[in-house]
Amino acid sequence: MKEIKIAELKKGTAAEFDYYGRDGKILIKKGVPVDDTLLNAISRRNITRFFIQEEGEDIKKLLALNMQDMDDLQFEEDSSLSDLSPASSATETITFKLPPENVLPVLKTIKSGEEGIRQMLETKPVRSMDDAVDKSGAVMSVLPIGEPIEKMAKEKKVGERTMEYKQETIRSYENAVQETKSILLSIRNGALADGGRVTNLVRGFVRTFLNDKHMLLNLANARSTEPDYLFSHSVNVCLIAISIGASRGFDKDQILEIGIGGLLHDIGTLLIPDAIRFKKEPLSRDEILEIRKHPMLGIHLVEKIKGLPSSVSFICYQNHERENRQGYPKQRNSRLIHDFAKIVSVADVYESLTADRPYRNGHIPYKAMESILRSVKEGLFNADIVKYFLDYSSLFPVGSLVKLNSNEIAKVIRPNKGHYSKPIVSVIINSNNALLKEHEIHVIDLSTAKDVQVVQAVDNRKLQVELMIGF
Known about the structure:
By secondary structure, this protein is of the alpha+beta class. The chain has helices spanning 36-44, 57-63, 100-103, 113-121, 124-134, 149-152, 163-188, 195-211, 215-219, 229-248, 252-264, 274-277, 285-291, 294-302, 311-318, 339-354, 365-377, 383-393, 460-463, and strands spanning 2-5, 19-20, 26-28, 49-52, 193-194, 305-306, 401-404, 409-414, 424-429, 442-445, 454-458. Among the domains are: 2-52, no CATH class; 100-362, Hypothetical protein af1432 (Orthogonal Bundle).
């Protein structure tokens, strides 16, 4: 807490912060008018000083699981911009050459419901994974061992990216979604796959990171026109997981493993019936249980890919496990969950929250990050991993839009480590709601601009600002 003297309260203004007493209770709420009535009340109580939370202190408390109330973090979302478009749905179904039981013969004997999950857990590849954890003492904790990729990566500034570079980056992203689709569908249709093809795809993302360290998080805001959400979701989870892993300090080889696991983490869902995957109504209990088979199905499918690191199977199997043993399929505690799976789980949930699904619109990035932070408090996610994500993304994630107190709209382009609510932004829309020309776009570091701050997180579905504008 930072100490503030009464004299710093300016009459005729609104309280800039929540002001606390020595006992930690709020004495003056943010936004309350500072007038004679308030100042006289303070004087009568012989209060001479207050305390405010220092920048980042609220987040640090949360990540220590010691924050009193997430409301301290909330910024008002622009209600006029939210929920304006209908939820998307698959407009095209993919015809598979083989039914699931022909791809995995073991499925011929697998029943529905809880009995089916128990049967899947007893299949040989799945049992081998559990034995590695329970009997062989497989190492779940992974430490950085080589040169951190983060230190090798370049940081481009606004104006350094040419239009040709931006267009080529978007084309590369779209090609990656199609390549991911091709790889996953070939496996779904019974083919054996070369792990080199998957590895080369992820290596391309790593090269992009090394050349332009914040580009991956910006690209993760892209929404492919591909009707099956799985393919763009897999790519976006890979991009986010690479960034979290880089923030953790992992080297290039470790990042490659994380990226491959992120790309393949949901491969098992391809064996879930489309009637369940694309259902717009709430799932029944039996349908939820069918969905929960996909980590085990993923292990079986990953076996069809030659030359993958062993960690990839752990990521596919454990990315739905949770720190407080409330995940699935085994309700593992934190010590028995692979660190790479923990990274991918955060990336997976964040990306899922921001994407449109058949049954709902996606959340704006700020709301998705807020949900991730609440999940830390609830014991679902590893607090350190979420902090690594925040360090690289900020509370208002890279690529998202925010409204400033100047009534301008800005794009978040870089985080300010430790200043989670004050990232570096580029102003792209002026106070008259006009899109700025390229040469008019300007950058503001909100950690040093004393009179400028974020007042709202903005839903880009209303504004439809192109991905690379202001970046």
